[in-house]
TrEMBL record:
Domain MmgE/PrpD N-terminal, first and last residues per copy: 20-264
Subunit structure: Monomer.
Keyword annotations of the record: Lyase
Family according to the record: Belongs to the PrpD family.
UniProt cross-references to Gene3D superfamilies, sorted A to Z: 2-methylcitrate dehydratase PrpD
Organism (species): Gemmobacter fulvus
One GO molecular-function entry: lyase activity
InterPro entries hit by this protein: MmgE/PrpD_sf (IPR036148), MmgE/PrpD_sf_1 (IPR042183), MmgE/PrpD_sf_2 (IPR042188), MmgE_PrpD (IPR005656), MmgE_PrpD_C (IPR045337), MmgE_PrpD_N (IPR045336)
Residue stretches making up the MmgE/PrpD C-terminal domain: 286-472
Name of the featured protein: MmgE/PrpD family protein
Length: 503
């Protein structure tokens, strides 16, 4: 890996293209390195993972809205839509929009946390959609997805967005554009322009994850994928981008990140070096914000010792700065303590999540979020006894580079009404690669079968799994089978209409 120093430059300095981050990203994307077997294995796992969470969300209103919009843009070649017949094809950017929303709606797929945070599986829908549309093979798709993960993970390692209230899709737009560049074997200068366009049009604020969180949290990554496809299309037609997008005098660093004096270090593979970043990412066993994964597992573990939750006087979760300020009481969001809050908001309240996980000794992607569940009087009472505090040691471990030090959990102190104090801690979720029960292929398959049970017919479940597991051997123009169909009655009752339906 090569660490690239990054800062803003005045226009008079004339930063050469070869010294710009976008160019270096484009060089990585255009580098025809062999994809290692372990990377191919993990890409297949994540394709299965994405389909699992998309199936569970296929009837939800935001997914229905995105699908309805996409169906208004049919395309003879095109790409498939989750839930629809394989022959139903829409323009690839709209397929990326609908499928990306389905993947993201339940906040239940993979994650990578470092200087910033991300869900790198969001790269898969746009790359897959374009691969289907352009008749690429399974091997081509694997190369494109490997690049998308590589670029997003390394941007997340080097550049913190949330400190400046920028949403993390500003790393996803460029990574998806780079992945598309690899998929389509585009030249470096074309990928360079597309990466910059994608950054420019996918930079939004973090209000989408603050206060009263709406369905836009699910739409945001799909929007980034859609914009990346459009950016690549424009650049292939000869159009350019604001340059240098990161380093320019009026660019990303100078005005949206740390300012003219800020310095960033972004690691990227050297020429000929394999793209392995996907192996540093991890998926979710529970449908909740990633920082809650270990704490859900800890609640399950502490439950028998605590006994009846009614005997609790208070619970304090000692955790990292990020967990405290994003999903904890440090966010100062009253909505995080509101029984009438949206599912998206409850998903970002570790106080609610820990209370329910402690009471139920587990977590469910649907029943743990129902209005009846969040309004249960005993749950509300327990929920309001829980607070978080930042612990510098957990913050240090959150940002640690040493995998043995890395931690996304916390230490929980439970004070009981009888005066006893119970303490336990967990650094990593059980399903984490270094956790107690690391996810393997069988876990991904089990997750898919569980989440799609009653939604996808058994024969169709197996057909999809067979297609995914044989991804590397799928021929050119054979990627349309990387889709699942469901009975129309399983698509939900939502039939939203808008401008695109106008007749």
């Amino acid at each position: 890996m090569i660490t690239h120093d990054l800062r803003s430059h005045k226009s008079a300095e004339h930063l050469p293209r070869a010294a710009q981050l976008a160019w270096k990203i484009a060089e990585v994307a255009a580098d025809p390195v062999t994809v290692e077997p372990a990377v191919t294995e993990m890409i297949i796992n994540r394709i299965i993972d994405n389909a699992a969470v998309a199936a569970a969300a296929v009837a939800r209103r935001p997914v229905a809205s995105a699908r309805a919009q996409s169906l208004c843009h049919p395309f003879k070649k095109g790409a498939t839509l989750f839930g629809m017949p394989h022959g139903t094809r829409v323009s690839p950017e709209w397929a990326a929009w609908a499928n990306g929303t389905a993947v993201r709606e339940l906040d239940f797929h993979d994650t990578f946390l470092a200087a910033d945070y991300s869900h790198p599986g969001d790269n898969i829908p746009p790359v897959l959609a374009v691969a289907q549309h352009t008749g690429k093979s399974g091997a081509d798709l694997i190369r494109g997805i490997a690049t998308g993960y590589e670029i997003q993970v390394n941007l997340v390692r080097g550049i913190c967005l949330h400190a400046h209230k920028i949403d993390h899709i500003a790393h996803l737009g460029p990574s998806a554009a780079a992945g598309l560049g690899t998929l389509l074997n585009l030249p470096v200068d074309t990928i360079y322009q597309a990466v910059q366009q994608a950054l420019h049009v996918t930079t939004t604020t973090r209000q989408s994850r603050k206060g009263e969180i709406s369905s836009w949290k699910a739409f945001a990554p799909a929007f980034a994928g859609k914009m990346a496809i459009e950016a690549v299309d424009r650049v292939m037609r000869g159009e350019g981008a604001p340059s240098p997008a990161w380093e320019g005098e009026d660019g990303f660093i100078a005005w949206l990140l740390g300012g003219p004096d800020a310095r960033y270090q972004v690691p990227l593979p050297s020429e000929g070096e394999a793209k392995r970043a996907i192996l540093d990412t991890y998926t979710k066993e529970h449908s909740a914000e990633y920082q809650s994964q270990a704490l859900i597992d800890l609640a399950r573990r502490m439950g028998p010792e605590i006994g009846d939750p009614a005997g609790i006087d208070s619970i304090v979760i000692h955790t990292s700065h990020h967990t405290h300020h994003v999903i904890g009481t440090g966010a100062n969001d009253p909505q995080k303590m509101d029984p009438n809050a949206s599912r998206e908001t409850l998903d970002h309240s570790i106080m609610y999540i820990f209370a329910v996980a402690l009471e139920d000794r587990g977590w469910h992607h649907e029943t743990s979020y129902t209005p009846e569940r969040s309004a249960r009087p005993e749950t509300v009472a327990l929920w309001h006894k829980i607070s978080t505090v930042e612990d510098p040691e957990w913050t240090r471990r959150y940002h640690a580079q040493d995998p043995k030090e890395k931690a996304f959990g916390g230490r929980v102190v439970v004070t009981l009404k009888d005066g006893r104090i119970l303490t336990d801690e967990l650094a990593l979720a059980d399903a984490h690669p270094a956790g107690a029960r690391p996810f393997r292929r069988g876990n991904y398959i089990r997750k898919f079968l569980t989440l799609s049970d009653g939604i996808i017919a058994p024969g169709e479940q197996q057909r999809f799994l067979d297609a995914a597991e044989n991804l590397a051997d799928l021929p050119a123009d054979g990627l349309g089978i990387l889709n699942f169909t469901v009975d129309p009655g399983r698509l939900g009752s939502h039939r939203p209409h808008g401008i695109f339906d106008w007749t």
